[in-house]
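Exercise 3.2. Students should predict the tertiary structure of the chain below and write it as structure tokens, then compare their answer with the key that follows.

Predict this chain's 3D structure.
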Amino acid sequence: MGDVNARGGPQQIPRPPAWTPGRPPAWGDAASTELLTAARVREVFGGRRGDPSPVAVHGASPSAVLIPLYESDGRLWVVLTRRAWDLRTHKGEVSFPGGRADPGETYAQTATREANEEIALDPSVVDVVGEMDHLTTVTRRAYIVPVVALLDGLPAVTPHPGEVDAVLHVPLDELCLPEVFHEEQWGMGPTSRPLYFFDLVGDTIWGATASMLRLLLVMLLGLHPGEPHEYDAARGLGPWEGIPPGIADDVV
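Answer key:
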């Protein structure tokens, strides 16, 4: 039998032929994890509107995801989902609950509704704090709005059959560990972009979800997020012909 404590999961990573190891994490070998608190979330994201995606003005369709955070046992935790393995796209991938916005909805309403549909998260326990910068999908057909929210302790959740394989509760300080985070550089020349990975026990977070998690950590830790393409891989690029889909494409 395999090691049940082994990091990394069965998620399929479509690495292109041209990739190289990336840089060390922005937080170095040790993050200031005392900043990973609910109070810090309110300080950084309270009332914040995310920087719009450049494709929004061209009529691109929006999606929104909920980044649910809560404190327990002196740590700040994030709620994630593992998508069902029989879905048509992004099967088995770790993501935030979310989906496409319905006409007339705010981004917060979309994210909260989708979290209720996917994991039965009660909207009444969701305290929306603010937004992170909007993420451009790799095909430039859409963009994702990350909605940051705080929950009052460990939430009661139930995965939706057929959509969600499991609900994951991950402490943010674990994501900062050297054995958990790594970066890869995909592509060559001016169109190359960094991709981020978090190896949990039994799962790998990558793509758009990993980009949002890295930006969340960087902002809470008071660090510089880098150039726009470093936290939104598709900014400034056309469709990436020849690059496997999923780098930052529709995660919801």
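Discussion points: Residues 240-252 have pLDDT under 50 and may be disordered. The helical segments are 38-45, 107-119, 172-175, 207-220, 228-231.
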